[in-house]
Amino acid sequence: MCIPWQRYADDHTRTVDTMTAVLLFAAFLFGGEVTVPGADRPDTAAPTIVLGLLSCGSLLRWQRTRPGAVVAVTTGGAAATVALGLLVTPLLLGPLMLALYRLTVRAGRRSSRRHYCAALAVIVPTALLADPVAHHPWPMKTISPAVWLLFPVVTGNLVRLQRAYVDAVQARAEYAEQGREEEAHRRVVEERVRIARELHDVVAHHLALANAQAGTAAHLARTHPDRAHGILTDLAGTTSSALRELKATVKLLRRADEGDAPLAPSPGLAQLAELTRTCAGTGLDVRVATEGTARPLTPGVDLTAYRIVQEALANVARHAGARTARVRLSFDRDRLTITVTDDGTAGTGGPAGPVPVKDGRGFGLIGMRERAESVGGALRAGHRPEGGFRVTARLPLYPDTPAPTERTP
């Protein structure tokens, strides 16, 4: 916390330094008049004024930029006054004490210790050997300067440590703020990817089925008009469902105040029957087989499994040119293995057609792999030697970390 006088001192350093130098000069002159009772006071007014101006002038000029040089000048001034016969008092040591304080705050403990010892090595022998006044007691010549000069060194170290602590706290606060910003940015990126993946799964599946249904209806319009009419009826339902889900998803994204409230239960493997019926309208025969004892899945794994099957069947309808697809759900002790295979010819040397999205570069396969990894699973996809394509996903039944919450309108 910065109190008003500290703020003023930081904003008006030149004014503060000038006032300090004037006060120290006045105290220096007053210290030149102090002596012990019974001792003869030498006539040293003129030299005292010169030494005071030299010491305080060096403080005013260089105390913030060259504190080491100022310590040397003020040490010489203090030693000279002692040699003139003046009593060593805090008043005469004032300029040196301030210089030591500035040096300690700026240069640190080791440098201040060296300058402190050097100052004592100059002042104490001078006071003991060159003092012309024999009535000054020896403790005033030895212990007194050692104690008074130690005070600014200790104080300067405390101030330096406090400033270092404040700087460290500020650095940690800035680092934490930067970390929060990076975390927020990362979450925004992850949310954008999740939204893009959800929109792809919700909308692209219906559009792929609608495209397949439209193509089948156009093919059967002349030869089998009744079947074409039924497929067109299913096409209307498919497009209506796509528009409804797209509208609900966009509405969910735009309602930021109620973003945590689910609008409808997330789909899961329980909706596979409805999914296979929808695919049947495109002429694709989908058969589902279950191995092992079916177990309840966590919402994240259930949604992931459904989306993987949905995207795999959508890819079959779009690109494979297949007539049948097989979905096998294998339940082990702690893992669910999903295998989706088809008998298509795209990409396996059959008739020319669109480049399949399942070659590892399309968003469909990327989305399936991301979903599997989000719950701690893995996904593999590739062409079968006997023809067609295989998508295999292995998902843990009880993942260690829950998958990101995804809501489906």
Helices, strands, pairings?
Layout: H1 4-11, H2 13-31, H3 45-62, H4 67-83, H5 94-107, H6 109-129, H7 138-141, H8 143-220, H9 225-254, H10 272-280, E1 285-291, H11 299-320, E2 324-331, E3 335-342, H12 363-374, E4 378-383, E5 389-396
Parallel strand pairs: 1-2
Antiparallel strand pairs: 2-3, 3-5, 4-5
Helix pairs in contact: 2-3, 3-4, 4-5, 4-6, 5-6, 5-8, 6-8, 8-9, 8-11, 11-12
Could you describe the 3D structure shown?
This protein is of the alpha+beta class and 409 residues long. The model is unreliable at 259-263, 347-361 and 401-409 (pLDDT under 50). It is built from 12 helices and 5 strands. A 5-stranded mixed sheet has the order 1-2-3-5-4, covered by helices on one side. 62% of the residues lie in helices and 9% in strands. Strand 1, helix 11 (299-320) and strand 2 (324-331) form a beta-alpha-beta unit. The chain has 2 domains: 4-141, no CATH class; 179-396, 2-Layer Sandwich (Heat Shock Protein 90).
Looking at this protein, list some descriptive labels.
2 domains, 12 helices, disordered C terminus, Heat Shock Protein 90, alpha+beta, 409 residues, 5-stranded mixed β-sheet, rod-shaped
CATH topology tier name of the largest domain: Heat Shock Protein 90
Q: pLDDT under 50 segments (min length 5)?
A: 259-263, 347-361, 401-409
- Arithmetic mean pLDDT: 76
Look at the structure and name the CATH superfamily of the largest domain. Histidine kinase-like ATPase, C-terminal domain
CATH top-level class of the largest domain:
Alpha Beta
Q: How big is the Rg?
A: 44 Å
Q: Helix/strand-derived class? A: alpha+beta
Count all strands and give the number. 5
Helix percent band: 55-70%
Overall geometric form: rod-shaped
CATH architecture of the largest domain: 2-Layer Sandwich
Number of domains: 2
Distance between the termini: 52 Å
Strand order of the largest sheet: 1-2-3-5-4
- What sequence of helices (H) and strands (E) makes up the elements? HHHHHHHHHHEHEEHEE
Number of helices: 12
